[in-house]
Amino acid sequence: MGHSRGGAAAILTAGQDPRVHALVTWAAISTVDRWPGRAAAWRAAGRLDIVNSRTGEVLPLYPDVLDDVEQNAAGLDILAAAQRVSIPWLILHGTTDAAVAVSEAHALAASAHQGRLILLEGAGHTFGAVHPFAGVTPDLAVAFDETVKWFGRHL
Hints:
The chain is an alpha/beta fold. The protein is built from 6 helices and 6 strands. It has helices at about 5-15, 40-45, 65-70, 80-85, 100-110, 140-155; strands at about 1-5, 25, 50, 60, 90-95, 115-120. A 4-stranded parallel β-sheet has the order 1-2-5-6, sandwiched between helices. The chain has a two-stranded antiparallel ribbon with strand order 3-4.
């Protein structure tokens, strides 16, 4: 199970590890190329500053991230890994996710052999949860409930 980039890690693992018998992803990315067209400027500047839209924190990314993506492109191909996932897979995504477009959930679902896509209408990237944690929201409760039911049925 994983959320956002953690969802990508879960997909990459499930696509190659036979010990994984069920998968749940929340707002998972479908590609590691999150910054198309910015590589040259990023390398020239020596870093790319990303502002966390929820916290306002500036998160610097250095060119080694680009190097890793370029050098390991085949192993980081999330959609190719998704096509190898042959286990039951639940894909949860909010329809108003500003961090990971809902189109990425559709792309993952189109690749999944035994996938089920649940779109939470009006939910954002964290299903309404905030930092610091202020309690379970209705959308987060649905995500928890669907996840527990999925694992209960398939494990």
